[in-house]
Amino acid sequence: MARRILLLGPPGAGKGTQAILICNTLHVPHISTGDMLRDAVASGTDLGQQVESVMAAGELVSDQLVVAMVDERLSASDARCGYLLDGFPRTVAQAEALNDLVVNAIGTVVLLEVESDEVVDRMARRASEEGRSDDKEETIRRRLDVYESETAPLVDFYGDAVLRVDGMGTVDEVFSRIMLGLAHA
Ligand code: ADP
Known catalytic residue: 142? Predict the structure, then answer.
C-alpha cells in the first residue's frame, strides 16, 4: 500500500479529520502545513509573525516559505519511510518543488470531493465551535476561490495518481472509502 500520500480537497472537505485516521492506521507521520503554520503563529516565531495576516485573510503563504518549512520537516527521520501530506502542495509551483526535494514524492493523491454547499456549512459550523480566525464567512469564500484557482489544477498535474473519494457522509464512511481505495491503488 502506498506510504507517500497526498490529501487534496477544498477547505472544509474533512482533510484534517481523515488525515489523523489514515496516519494512525498506516503509521506514517501527518504533515499538515496548516497546522505547522498555526503553531508558528501561536508561538510567535518569526515565521508566525510573517504569515499571520496572510492566513487570516484566507490567502496563501508564499511558496518559498512553505517549501522551506516542508523541506525541513521531510528531512526528519520519521518521514523516511512515508508520510501523509495535508495541505501541501497547494500550488503547481509547490508540487514541482516537492518533486525536486524527493524522488517519487507522491504515491497516491487522495482527492476528497465534497459539494460546495456542504463545505460552506461545515466551515461555518467549525467557526462557531473552534473559533479559527480564517473561518469567517468572507474568508471562507476567499479560501474556496483560492482553492479553485491555485490548488484544483493539481488534479491534472497528478493525473493517474489521483484517487477520487466521495467525501460526503459520516467520518467513518469516508474513511472506509479511502482505505478501500488505497488498498487497490
Ligand atoms: P484548510 O484545509 O481549511 O484550507 P489549512 O489548515 O490547510 O486549511 O491551511 C490554513 C491556511 O494556512 C491557508 O488558508 C493558508 O493561508 C496557509 N497554508 C497552509 N498550507 C499552505 C501551503 N501549502 N501554501 C500556502 N499557504 C498555506
Answer: no
